[in-house]
Design goal:
CATH superfamily of the largest domain: Type I PLP-dependent aspartate aminotransferase-like (Major domain)
GO molecular function, one term: pyridoxal phosphate binding
Largest sheet: 7 strands, mixed
Number of domains: 2
Oligomer: single chain
Distance between the termini: 51 Å
Protein name: Acetylornithine aminotransferase
Catalytic activity: N(2)-acetyl-L-ornithine + 2-oxoglutarate = N-acetyl-L-glutamate 5-semialdehyde + L-glutamate
Pathway: Amino-acid biosynthesis; L-arginine biosynthesis; N(2)-acetyl-L-ornithine from L-glutamate: step 4/4
Strand content: 15-25%
CATH topology of the largest domain: Aspartate Aminotransferase, domain 2
CATH class of the largest domain: Alpha Beta
Shape: globular
Subcellular location: Cytoplasm
Mean pLDDT: 96
Low-confidence stretches: none
Radius of gyration: 21 Å
Length: about 400
């Protein structure tokens, strides 16, 4: 048995690469939508591990799935397949537009696979000149060199050497700009049905349908990045289902594993056939532990009671936030879908999302930012109503202190 070493927040600055700035407490235990830190202080969690903990902390069904699989088989690599991966893939196909699945470990890896597949498809059906990927400004698709290049936020891609070629950006929800950019060179358009990191901005009515039509016109693939919006987050299993528009490729991660690292790229037979043996891979992708947990997440989330419950909780949170805004004019509006919500700061409070986040933490409430002007909420899909009400009360106290 290894010795239990005492560590604290100061140790982060001593031992970790300084690319993060974590808050000043360390959580050590979670149960449902509550967390406890090293000092035993309790918090209500509306951050959800950045839209990851779809079923909260320490969900008994996920503990059971993980521990049962842990006693059987952890890893075999992709020179073999395994039962949990095949079951999960089959269930994802049954529940979506897809015919084929590729498993990875993170949203960035799923998007990397999607972008590589799109270029491979175009190369093989039309030749090397059809290689342009069009994405949206303020989009976010991951932190690999390819995915930050496709993502429309230069702050994440600058300073890492020459940018990848064949990538362009147009404003989100701007069809005219997209059509002006498209050509025979376009191999794919990638869109988040709800921009998450960019400020929790939903696609405008009819936008996704029009993008689909443009992709068909120019024989380009439509990729939906549902890393943040997928797996029940919006009240449907995937956000594209609200629009009736089917992509050619969809990426899923975050909530898919309920906290266990796993991601999936879903696609059609037509496109999947261009990833032949040896064209792409992942050592850990589709490992039995991740797939067993994700299968249980899918079984629980993809049910009428959970998905309808997301919409009910959405109403409670939106109404509560707007009621708070009547008293403390910090928020100008609330946007988003299901339990991916953005409270947009009013003009006088622009740029102060971090201060609000810190004040909330002091009141025992964990929330997120989506840029400096938006407070983002992405709680458990099954957060109890009592926790929602108490969270709103704690937010009111935090704002009362800030407003003075």
């Amino acid at each position: 048995m290894s010795e239990s070493m005492q560590v604290g927040r100061a140790d982060f600055d001593r031992v970790m690469v300084p690319n993060y700035a974590p808050v000043d407490m360390i959580p050590v235990r979670g149960q449902g939508s509550r967390l406890w830190d090293q000092q035993g202080r309790e918090y209500i969690d509306l951050a959800g591990g950045i839209a990851v903990n779809a079923l909260g902390h320490a969900h008994p069904g996920l503990i059971e799935a993980l521990t049962e699989q842990a006693g059987k088989l952890w890893h075999v690599s992709n020179i073999m397949t395994n039962e949990p991966a095949l079951r999960l893939a089959s269930k994802l196909i049954d529940a979506t537009f897809a015919n084929k699945v590729f498993f990875a470990n993170s949203g960035a890896e799923a998007n990397e696979a999607a972008f590589k597949l799109a270029r491979r498809w175009a190369h093989e059906v039309a030749g090397p000149d059809k290689n342009e990927i069009i994405a949206c400004t303020n989009s976010f698709h991951g932190r690999t060199l390819f995915t930050v290049s496709v993502g429309g936020q230069p702050k994440y891609s600058q300073g890492f050497g020459p940018a990848l070629e064949g990538i362009s950006h147009v404003p989100y929800n701007d069809l005219a700009a997209l059509e002006a950019q498209m050509s025979a060179r376009t191999c794919a358009v990638v869109v988040e049905p709800i921009q998450g990191e960019g400020g929790v901005i939903p696609a405008a009515m009819g936008y996704l349908q029009a993008v689909r039509e443009l992709c068909d016109k120019y024989d380009a693939l439509l990729i939906f990045d549902e890393v943040q919006s997928g797996m029940g987050r919006t009240g449907k299993l995937y956000a594209y289902m609200h629009s009736g528009v089917q992509p050619d490729i969809l990426t899923s991660a975050k909530s898919l594993g309920g906290g266990f690292p796993i991601a999936a790229m879903l696609t059609t037979n037509k496109v999947a056939s261009h990833f032949g043996v040896g064209t792409h891979g992942s050592t850990y992708g589709g490992n039995p532990l991740g797939c067993a947990v994700a299968e249980r997440v899918l079984d629980i989330v993809n049910t009428p009671e959970v998905l309808e419950g997301v919409e009910h909780r959405h109403q409670l949170l939106v109404e509560g936030l707007l009621a708070i805004a009547e008293v403390y004019p910090v928020f100008s509006r609330v946007r988003g879908s299901g339990l991916l919500l953005g409270a947009v700061l009013s003009e006088a409070w622009k740029g102060q999302a971090r201060q609000i986040q810190e004040a909330a933490q002091q009141e025992g409430l964990l929330v997120l930012q989506a840029g400096p002007d938006v407070i983002r909420l992405a709680p458990s899909l099954i957060i109890p109503e009592a926790d929602i009400q108490e969270a709103l009360e704690r937010l009111s106290k935090a704002l009362a202190r800030l407003v003075g």
